[in-house]
Amino acid sequence: MTDAHDTAADSSLRTTGGAPPDDNGSPATEAPTPLLEPREGIPPVITGGAALAEVTAAFAAGTGPVAVDAERASGYRYGQRAYLVQLRRAGAGSALIDPVACPDLSGLGQALSGAEWVLHAATQDLPCLREIGMLPGRLFDTELAGRLAGFPRVGLGAMVENVLGFVLEKGHSAVDWSTRPLPEPWLRYAALDVELLVDLRHALEKELDRQGKLEWALQEFEAIASAPPPEPRKDPWRRTSGMHKVRRRRQMAVVRELWQVRDRIAQRRDVSPGKVLSDAAIVEAALALPVNVHALGALNGFGPRVGRRQLEQWQTAVDRARALPESQLPQPGQPVTGPPPPRAWADKDPVAAARLSAARAGVSALAERLNMPQENLITPDTVRRVCWEPPQSADRESVAAVLAGYGARPWQVEQVTPVLVTALVSGGSGGL
């Protein structure tokens, strides 16, 4: 985004000050300072029983939006479950809840069902919140709001500093949140993550309204809140880092076998799969196709620190892949459900390639004028699909219907349709 807009955003939004604004968004008055302590101190961690019922009642009786955040143990534990849930609401203060001790928070979720939830990067936290029974009916995503408003840095710390004038300490974002008991500095950090979230929401709402983008943001938030849970990924082993080096089907079978064994072990131990066996080691074994434990142990990732029993376990997986008949070997690549890779368009369909080139240029120019990332204006996949198989008639009504069919929100349809109509006509008329 442009420096001019960044300056404008700072001057119109930033409320510099030492003491935090109150929950109604009253601005602070002095120079920006680090925010070191929650307003009411660090709340005790709720582990169930009467304390959870008390917090549920307090938050149900609170007013206005409720700030919600969750901490996971990515890189340490298996899966993406929540290990701490933080909330803040006017009239209720802040709360820290241990979802390991309180695995069912559906009662709290129901108590907050009528409130707007404020989250930062909502799509990251909603899956783990859903697992414990917490789902918003309405939400406001401060990270997405920042993107739509044109802020170049949309992390929570950057947004709080640029918009509200406070500095959040972010040193504990990547710690192992499954640790028990949680150290006090971590709890302080967690409480501060929701301390100013509602204030940030109010400021961003004003900025979006000033830019004429508030309705766009509300449509985006509604799409996130109403989206169904994502379906399990097909063939997740294909996302092994370094997979692009694996070309032969027999080697792919080794990756698949090792990945599946590793996943079962990681799930049983409740540890991150990378702590069981690295992706690099899986790919190394797939490329080498070792014939015995001795050959496997000579490879990177299977050295002296790997015990004999573990080596035998991995070699057994390799042997299974080596013994598979050709008919059971995985096919190269995943089934293609959409257009081919754009790099192949010039050879497969030069007219479609011209349409895509014109569409990309038009979308890029429009995103720059609107001061937002292209992917928030319209997904690249949607642009490719429209350009590869355009409607029979490249008029506004037809293109708008196609965009809506691919899930574009009304504001996106309104903004992007003229650009794509022009691209389909200038790059090669639709349907030809």
Automatic annotation (TrEMBL):
Residues 248-328 form the HRDC domain. InterPro entries: 3'-5'_exonuclease_dom, Exo_C, HRDC-like_sf, HRDC_dom, HRDC_dom_sf, RNase_D-like, RNaseH-like_sf, RNaseH_sf. Residues 1-39, 324-343 are annotated as: Disordered. Pfam families: DNA_pol_A_exo1, DNA_pol_A_exoN, HRDC. It comes from the Bacteria. SMART domains: 35EXOc (SM00474), HRDC (SM00341). This is Ribonuclease D. The lineage of its organism: Bacteria, Bacillati, Actinomycetota, Actinomycetes, Kitasatosporales.
